[in-house]
Amino acid sequence: MRSDLNRYGFTIALFLFFTTTSALGQIPPSDVGLSANHVYQKNCAKCRGKTAEGHRFAGPSLISPKIASISTEELRNAVTNGKGHVPKFRMPEFGSQMTSAEINTLVEQIQALNRKQ
């Protein structure tokens, strides 16, 4: 009986280790860039484009002087809580779909993209 508990405890510990490690491994480093960020590609690219240059009838480019002038906190707030008032053109909120680390990575990558310009 005791060996069964040890075996199950070890199995549970391994499961927790691998699930935690794989979850943390999914957040790409901020220096990778938006085009390689799977979180961006999954949630943002359909409106902003795969390279963040925007789509004519969807989201505007993330590479612009206007975006470059937005503070880190404002950008983080826009991603977390959404932005805009017209439902069809409103940027959705992603605070419940992304972790704070994923949001922070996106913000860093958007800012890095604008520094290159």
Describe what is shown at a glance.
The chain contains six helices and no strands.
Descriptive account of the structure:
The chain has 117 residues and is mainly alpha-helical. The protein has a single domain, classed as Cytochrome Bc1 Complex, Chain D, domain 2 (Orthogonal Bundle). It is globular, with a radius of gyration of 19 Å. The termini are far apart.
Features:
single chain; mainly alpha; 6 helices; 117 residues; Cytochrome Bc1 Complex, Chain D, domain 2
**How many whole angstroms does the radius of gyration measure?**
19 Å
Q: Any idea how many domains?
A: 1
CATH superfamily: Cytochrome c-like domain
**CATH architecture annotation:** Orthogonal Bundle
What number is the mean pLDDT? 80
User: What structural category arises from helix and sheet content?
Assistant: mainly alpha
Shape: globular
> Ends: how far apart?
65 Å
Order of helices and strands: HHHHHH
Total number of strands:
0
- Residue share in β-strands: under 5%
Secondary structure blueprint with pairings:
Blueprint: H1 2-24, H2 38-43, H3 45-48, H4 65-68, H5 72-81, H6 100-116
